Q: What sequence folds into this?
């Protein structure tokens, strides 16, 4: 069984320096990016004993799609810099592990290349030109996207500092925004919109006819507002520490949001620093329906393409099942908040 750290070490010598820096980089001084995993390491567990765990099941569903594991793949940009097949290999590898991928709207492959039985969602940055956003999402839906994930924490791009060459000096144009026809259009049209409101949720839902997940939520009051506006699920995220440096770690934000949404029927997801099956168990016990990994999936993609992604997710799921047996949980429904010490 390979740990996430093993995948990362091997990816280090496979990736160009500028790409490696971009994948690892956090905003500002990198405080939020650096502390994420440690915040999942900190909580302690209160396991049950004398529970029948002769069979442990990790199967669940997300927005009606059955998956064999609650460990899913988060959207990340420049996947073709990690592997020539980019998002196509990521989706295929995740599906082989019984998982699901959220594909970025910045994808470097056409959505049509993802068409098939493998389940995936599309992440959306709403652009200043709403028509371009609608066209992109129409292409995604036609290719089989099952949900829209609205990234809500990017009214402006977080500041990032570096001393080496920028990845943007070397990335081929075709490795980015492959699903937007930018020919003859002014640059401002595909800039990210800064005027989003809860009404944007309903616009996306009615425009696409797909369920809308709101990603980037860290506050219970915002989570409730998103549900009231028509969101099907909430995704607790601080963008991998790449937006507001010093934003609360998702490991600390999850429980209050789960408590605020109790009884609503809404699904709840989380990402940010999850590196082990025990981390996933903690998140699920605190109220998450599923967890998402971003950087670990990039390392696995860079090392071994679709097979690397499959193996990463399979190993993390095996770690989760092992930890479930040790806390006395035969299935995901048995992962409850009382398993986590205050």
A:
């Amino acid at each position: 069984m390979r740990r996430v750290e093993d995948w990362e070490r091997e990816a280090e010598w496979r990736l160009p320096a500028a790409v490696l820096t971009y994948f690892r980089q956090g905003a500002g001084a990198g405080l939020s990016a650096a502390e994420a995993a440690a915040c999942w390491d900190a909580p302690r567990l209160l396991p049950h004993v004398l529970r029948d765990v002769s069979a442990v099941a990790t199967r669940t569903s997300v927005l009606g799609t059955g998956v064999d594991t609650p460990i899913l793949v988060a959207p990340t940009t420049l996947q073709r810099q990690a592997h020539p097949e980019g998002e196509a290999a990521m989706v295929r590898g995740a599906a082989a592990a019984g998982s699901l991928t959220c594909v970025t709207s910045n994808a470097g492959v056409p959505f049509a290349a993802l068409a098939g039985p493998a389940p995936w969602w599309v992440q959306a940055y709403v652009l200043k030109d709403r028509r371009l956003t609608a066209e992109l999402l129409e292409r995604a839906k036609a290719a089989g996207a099952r949900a829209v994930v609205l990234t809500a924490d990017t009214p402006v791009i977080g500041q990032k500092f570096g001393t080496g060459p920028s990845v943007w000096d070397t990335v081929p144009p075709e490795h980015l925004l492959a699903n937007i026809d930018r020919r003859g259009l002014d640059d401002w049209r595909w800039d990210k919109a800064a005027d989003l409101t809860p009404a944007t949720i309903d616009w996306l839902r009615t425009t696409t006819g797909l369920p809308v997940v709101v990603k980037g939520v860290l506050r219970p009051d915002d989570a409730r507002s998103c549900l009231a506006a028509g969101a099907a699920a909430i995704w607790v995220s601080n963008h991998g520490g790449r937006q507001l440096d010093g934003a609360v770690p998702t490991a600390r934000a999850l429980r209050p949001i789960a408590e605020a949404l109790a009884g609503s029927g809404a699904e709840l997801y989380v990402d940010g620093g999850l590196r082990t099956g025990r981390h996933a168990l903690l998140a699920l016990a605190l109220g998450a329906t599923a967890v998402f990994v971003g950087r670990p999936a990039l390392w696995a993609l860079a090392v071994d393409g679709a097979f690397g992604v499959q193996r990463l997710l399979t190993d993390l799921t095996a770690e989760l099942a092992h930890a479930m047996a040790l806390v006395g949980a035969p299935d995901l429904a048995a992962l409850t908040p009382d398993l986590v010490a205050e």
Notes: Residues 284 and 335 are 6 Å apart (CA to CA).
